[in-house]
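User: Hello! I'm new to structural biology and keep hearing that structure can be predicted from sequence alone. Could you demonstrate with Cell division protein FtsL? Please show me the input and the output so I can see what each looks like.

Assistant: Of course. The first part below is the input, the amino acid sequence of Cell division protein FtsL. The second part is the output, the predicted structure written as tokens.
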Amino acid sequence: MRAFLYILTSLAVIGLAFWAYRENYATQQALSEADKLHENIRAAHARLAVLKAEWAYQNRPERLRDLAEINFERLGLLPLHPDQFGQVDQIAYPPQPLPPILNGIDVSSSAAEEDPL
């Protein structure tokens, strides 16, 4: 009976060692993938920072003003002034359409029948 217990215990230890070995490698692989993802995120943040800086550089008001002046004949862009803006109550909205008449009554024929004059 003791031999059977020793064999069963040694098989359990070997099984647990194999399980721990597999889990260790799976954990190392997951950590490696996480490191790669963090590296990709850092690279994306760096690219985003460069793009934001480039966007800010390209959208400088003096640069856009110079481009508008250079391309005035082709684009016809003029600077905005406060007097070019209107108020909301100055907007002419189209009139609301009238609802359709669904159950119409012919009043001209009924009025002629009732009036004997």
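User: So the tokens describe the shape?

Assistant: Right, they're a compact way of writing down the 3D structure. Reading them back into a model, for example: The longest helix spans residues 2-58.
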